[in-house]
Specification:
The protein is mainly α and 110 residues long. The chain is 62% helix and 0% strand. It contains 5 helices and no strands. The longest helix is centred in the C-terminal third of the chain and has 27 residues. It is elongated, with a radius of gyration of 20 Å. The chain starts with 13 loop residues before the first helix and ends in a 17-residue tail after the last helix.
């Protein structure tokens, strides 16, 4: 019997997820494989943007009129990046990046 060490595939790079989430709302969640969570964020973006557009004064700027939607957009970016960082850190901790010099910064010579 030989013991096989199976490593899980690398999760998406957190910076790739961050960039996708910034460029297109909910796309960071799609890259992570949780599209329903991204769809929930999109739904609340639209709803809160509509609500703030209805209650904002008429002389408010575009961002001021849709501040609720922009708030949820910012939270979705942070959420996607946090999920990606946690998955990547778990993967590195479990030995997924063996031989990578960026792992922990410790050398194997000690």
């Amino acid at each position: 019997m030989t013991s096989q060490i199976t490593t899980s595939p690398a999760p998406p790079n957190p910076y790739l997820v961050l960039g996708a989430a910034i460029v297109l709302p909910a796309s960071g969640h799609v890259v992570l494989g949780v599209p329903v969570r991204g769809l929930q964020f999109l739904f609340f973006m639209v709803i809160l943007a509509w609500v703030t557009a209805k209650i904002a004064p008429p002389d408010a700027s575009f961002i001021g009129r849709h501040a609720g939607g922009f708030l949820i957009y910012a939270l979705s970016i942070l959420d996607a990046y946090k999920i990606a960082r946690i998955r990547y850190a778990k993967w590195v901790h479990n030995g997924g990046a063996r031989g990578d010099s960026a792992v922990g910064g410790a050398s194997a010579d000690i």
